[in-house]
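Please, structure for the following, as tokens.
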Amino acid sequence: MRVKCVLCDKIEAINDESLTAKRLRNRPIHTYMCKECCERITEKTNARISTGNFRFYRPTSEVEEW
């Protein structure tokens, strides 16, 4: 299966039976990123987290007890 990176428009070939290929076929909302872009984003995110100014905007879950 040929896929195109969302960020750098690099075209790569991945195995048709891989989990990534299955996700891309069955759920069109999933996008593909090449390893270089994924590593670059991971490094930059970890650098931002280490500065202390990074916030995770995750919803707070309220515990419901019966």
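The radius of gyration is 17 Å. The mean pLDDT is 87.
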